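Holo prediction — 4'-deoxy-4'-aminopyridoxal-5'-phosphate.
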Amino acid sequence: MPLYNHKINSKLPNIKTTIFTVIGQLAHEHKAINLSQGFPNFEPDPSLIDLVTKAMKQGYNQYAPMAGVMELREMISEKIEQLYSRHYHPDKEMTVTIGATQAIFTIITAFIGKGDEVIVIKPAYDCYEPAIEVNGGIPVFVQLNNTDFKLDWALFRSKITPRTKMVIINTPHNPSGIIFSKADMLELQKSLENTNIIIISDEVYEHITFDGHKHESASKYEGLASRTFVCGSFGKTFHITGWKMGYCAGPAELMHEFRKTHQFNVFSADHAVQKALASYLKEPQHYLGLNQFYQKKRDLFLDALSTSRFKIKPSQGTYFQLVDYGDISQEPDQVFAERLVKEHKIASIPISGFNTKGTDEHLLRFCFAKTDETLEKAAEILCRL
Ligand code: PMP
Ligand code: GLN
């Protein structure tokens, strides 16, 4: 019998447990091959682990500086300048965070209040909307075209109102795998001219692009960079999602405001890991080889699926592959995904939860950041359906 009757007036009455936890637990229970939540099932580079151990042994076991270890901020800044030709001042324009998730949550908390509108492009990764709502903001949705996942920029512009405070973009895009082109970035830039709208550019998959597609960072565009927080994640790039290490870069004035919240939100991120990453980043091949590494995995998975009844959606980047199962079943996507786990021992992510109003287009997302053996086994099961 509870001693106290909690009458919770929920700030998030409609938010359920994230699909990644729901499907992940089900996969575990049924011992299914898990291609659901996005994480590698192989180990990171042992030399990176050695660097962390070394940093711990050297005594980097207490709080790191609030904005992050300076060598790491310098290395990130150098990397961005090399790749996208923009200089971010390591001291004033760069903060290391506990994954991109914390960067995004803290930016939204620092800038969004009651009644502020935030444009979110759907389908969208699931951490944006609750962060907006818990801060009293209003998510305003623009749905990508359901065949090729292109954004209709006239539709986007029609959503801008005097209350629009922020726009969130994500390229390469989770879950569709599309990449914003230079033309898209210029459309975005033009659409926001003469406004004070801030952008969150979620670029956690910046190093995973295929078939010659180039990542167009918001930092490359003057009219975007001056109003954008670019968010990155080492979890995706170095196969260390469990280390929860990310960062954001943005103009000094915005970063100053961001840190007012960041310092009381987490204060700082893991010290030893930051020291290790600062060394590891000195070798660009550690991240520049990732495109090829994952393109091979995507191709292996798609080849192995070629005799299946799934219809494949083009994946230009990220480590996700969308498939249409409409020729196999007409069940709702979550029902189908759960049945795949229970009856066929294979886990994927249903997409309806990421769409506006939960629209179900019979799409599943498979993560191919897995060993070749796992991908082959998974495809074998999927070809039998
Ligand atoms: N944004 C997107 C689009 C993602 O897929 C993820 C998933 N990891 C994140 C942000 C969060 O990144 P992190 O794990 O660094 O918090
Ligand atoms: N980004 C990962 C994905 O899309 C999930 C991370 C999480 O569960 N929050 O699968």
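READOUT: The chain has 15 helices and 13 strands.
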